[in-house]
Amino acid sequence: MAEPDVLQTHPLYATDRDLVDRLLAVTAPVDQDLVELARLAMRYEGFPGAHDLQDDLAKTLRLWALDRQQLHQRTRAIWAAGHRPGALAQQEPVGSGFDTADQTND
């Protein structure tokens, strides 16, 4: 007798659920949205559980008029252009922000 499929709960489900809900609401995805969708799609591909997330990831692709191959082509280009996780969309000034004028010379 074969054992029934065991559905697992992913340890990052709660945070990923929030992110997927946010992505579903996006009508014009920016680079970071595309990267997040690709990352989550890879994380949950073949995962034995979280079917609601997997369905919503596929739905997001359809809403954005993309298939997996197009998503991966676009995200590869984003990474090749220098994208780094956590980087702000706006360029931050270079420097430590340390103000030497506040120091006293003894």
What does this structure look like?
The chain is an all-alpha fold and 106 residues long. It has a domain at 13-80. Helix content is 49%, strand content 0%. Helix 1 (13-24) crosses helix 2. The longest helix has 14 residues, at 31-44.
Let me know the average pLDDT. Answer: 85
Q: How widely separated are the two ends?
A: 82 Å
Percent in helix: 40-55%
Beta-strand content bin: under 5%
Rounded to an integer in angstroms, the radius of gyration calculated over CA atoms is 20 Å
Structural class, by secondary structure, is mainly alpha
Tell me how many strands there are: 0
Give the low-pLDDT segments: 90-94
List keywords for this structure.
106 residues, mainly alpha, globular
How would you concisely characterize the structure shown here?
The chain has 106 residues and is mainly α. The chain has a domain at 13-80. The protein is 49% helix and 0% strand.
